[in-house]
Design a protein that fits this description.
Elements: H1 9-13, H2 26-31, H3 39-48, H4 54-76, H5 79-105, H6 111-139, H7 145-157, H8 161-175
Length: 176
């Protein structure tokens, strides 16, 4: 049977895994100490990077859903497509609003309670969205799945705008 081992196998096995694929600045990152922030530094960091309100994201999703439904209705001149798109937007916005209400209601809770609350409300959100989709054929006469799914997709992508808003808020704060 042929020998399938590499001549330098023992040498390779002894190398450190972290150094196997060193990237730019890898050595500095490994040696950088963790710095605990003082309350003043933490407050300054929060002021520099303010969180985006989930209600602002929900409002943007609702507005975008209305625009998509209106555009679909205007372009196709078919009301059942507009209603399907509106219901698709609602299948994103209503569960999202329920999640936002659930997680913003908990103030002053510990980290564990906040994590559990988030997971619980996220499960409720997914369950409600699935239930709304299951009921769509009974709720929307002449349902168009493509229109519903397009509106859902566009509304879900609004979440990415929160990253842009956060950057804009940070930039505006830096100008003051």
């Amino acid at each position: 049977m042929p020998n399938l081992t590499c001549p330098n196998m023992s040498e390779r096995a002894s190398t450190d895994v972290r150094n196997a694929w060193p990237g730019p600045g890898a050595a500095e990152d490994d040696d950088a100490p963790f710095k605990t922030l003082s309350p003043e530094e933490a407050q300054a960091l929060r002021a520099k990077h303010p969180p985006v309100s989930p209600w602002r994201v929900i409002a943007a999703q609702a507005a975008v859903g209305l625009v998509v439904a209106a555009l679909i209705g205007l372009v196709t001149q078919r009301s059942e497509l507009a209603w399907s798109a509106l219901y698709g937007a609602a299948a994103v916005v209503v569960p999202g609003a329920l999640l936002a209400r659930g997680i913003t209601r908990l103030t002053g809770a510990g980290v564990g309670a906040a994590a559990f609350s988030f997971m619980l409300w996220e499960a409720v959100k997914v369950g409600l969205a699935v239930a709304m989709l299951a009921a769509a054929t009974k709720v929307v006469p002449g349902l168009s799945w493509p229109a519903l799914l397009v509106a859902m997709l566009v509304c879900m992508k609004v979440n990415w705008l929160a990253l842009l808003w956060q950057g804009r808020v940070k930039n505006e704060a830096g100008r003051d």
